[in-house]
Amino acid sequence: MRKIGVTLTALLLAAVLLIPAGAGAADKTVLLTFTGDCTIGSDSSTYGRPRSFVEAAETKGYDYFFANFKDLFAQDDCTVINLEGVLTDHTGDEQRNKTYRFRGPRDYVNIIKSVSIEACCLANNHTYDFGAQGLKWTKATLEENNIGWFMLYDTWDFVKDGIRIRFFAVDSRNLGQMFSWLKTEIARVKEAKEADAVVAVFHGGMEYGAWHEEAQQRFAEATVGSGADLVIMHHPHVVQGIDIINQRTVCYSLGNFVFGGNNEIREEPSRYVTVTSLYSIVVQAELHFSEDGTYTGQQVTLYPAYISGDPPNNDYQPRPVKGEEGLPVVMAVQRDTTFELPVYDEDTGKVVMPYLSAKPAESNTVTTEAVK
Fold it and tell me: Counting beta carbons within 10 angstroms of the beta carbon of residue 48, is it exposed (0 to 12), middle (13 to 18) or buried (19 or more)?
């Protein structure tokens, strides 16, 4: 079992000492929101059947799915989802050798547009469910509707008030061949000042694993070591823990979100516990910059959620949870986190992490070297 070398109390003290006004010292901020896996469509085997995502879209309307998070997404600067599947009207290139093939018609882009979602991560194991043509249509559909996308060697930039944030994404199938490029490119981008901050996204880990794997941690340590300022992961379909590496936040798995892939909530054994796909975490990260664009720090907030309001059925409409409902979600994150999380506020339904200064006092820095 790893032990963290600096307690959360020390980290909180460092934050107070370094940021007297509760992180208000930064001149500019960018608020980013992230969700886990979103399948905006159905698996081929259930397409259009009762209780499928497609039936829900037909009977409940496009604005139904993200409705409970519309206000949260609207008040940030940029919301990013992992789009698990394709948006295409063509099925000729369906990869029938795969067990699950996720697809929504191109018109389902209006589900994404029903709320303020600015970009989609496309680096996952379902982007080629309908071949290269299916992915091509997905990219074109997003572009035609002014929604950004990023995957593998194609990065995406978000810009606000002159602050540029570059997004990288890779999945486990391509990590080996891309790992060297990814580390080098992140370092180059930061050195050349092509971006003021970098977000690295990884789609990997063990499905229904209660704890993150070594590959996930290696990705986090390597990308942060190369200059990434925030690391977000998904794929396991359940929530996992968080890390703090060199004063940067790592979220190992956000779980599912609007997930049309299953019409029931799945529970699976994972070592000594049973995990559930009901739990989800929405992450908001407020990045801080000086007036000249220099990155100065971050503060992350975790919002517990359920992916359905009708468990054990999946109604495809995630909802935020507060009070006692949210506590098991937070505990699932805590189980895979080596330090004590801040107190979960049952009234507001969130966990607010301490502010992390980019350059803290050396004695209070939480780094990978401090983790043994």
Answer: exposed
Query: For the whole model, what pTM was predicted?
Result: 0.91
How are strands ordered across the β-sheet holding 86-87?
42-43, 102-104, 86-87
- The residue-averaged pLDDT of 281-303 equals 97
pLDDT tens for 185-229 read 999 999 999 999 999 999 999 999 999 999 999 999 999 999 999
Query: In the chain, what is the greatest distance between 2 CA atoms, to the nearest angstrom?
Result: 60
Distances in whole angstroms, Cα of residue 8 to Cα of each of 14, 340, 351: 10, 6, 14
359 phi/psi in degrees, rounded to 5: -130, 80
As to burial, measured by CB atoms within 10 angstroms (0-12 exposed, 13-18 middle, 19+ buried), residue 353 is buried
Confidence of residue 360 (pLDDT cuts 50, 70, 90): low
Contact 258, 65 (CB under 8 A): yes
202's tokens: 């990884």
Task: Count the Cβ atoms, other than its own, within 10 Å of residue 184.
Answer: 11
Euclidean distance between CA atoms 117 and 73, whole angstroms = 7
Distance (Å, rounded) from C-alpha 288 to C-alpha 82?
A: 24
DSSP H helices in the chain: 8-18, 53-60, 70-74, 109-113, 131-144, 172-191, 214-226, 323-335
| Phi, psi values for residue 300, rounded to 5° | -110, 140
Can you tell me the distance from the alpha carbon of 325 to that of 320, in angstroms, rounded to the nearest whole number?
9
Q: Does residue 13 register a pLDDT over 80?
A: no
Domain coordinates in residue numbering, the chain: 26-318
Neighbours of 366 (CB within 10 A): 24
Residue pair 274/267 in contact by the 8 Å Cβ criterion: yes
Handedness of CA 242, 86, 175, 199 (dihedral sign): negative
Which tokens is 67 given?
């409705």
Domain spanning 26-318 has what CATH number? 3.60.21.10
Is 44 strand, coil or helix?
Answer: helix
Determine how many CB atoms are found less than 10 A away from the CB of residue 336.
18
Q: For residue 149, give Cα distances in angstroms to 83, 127, 240.
A: 9, 12, 25
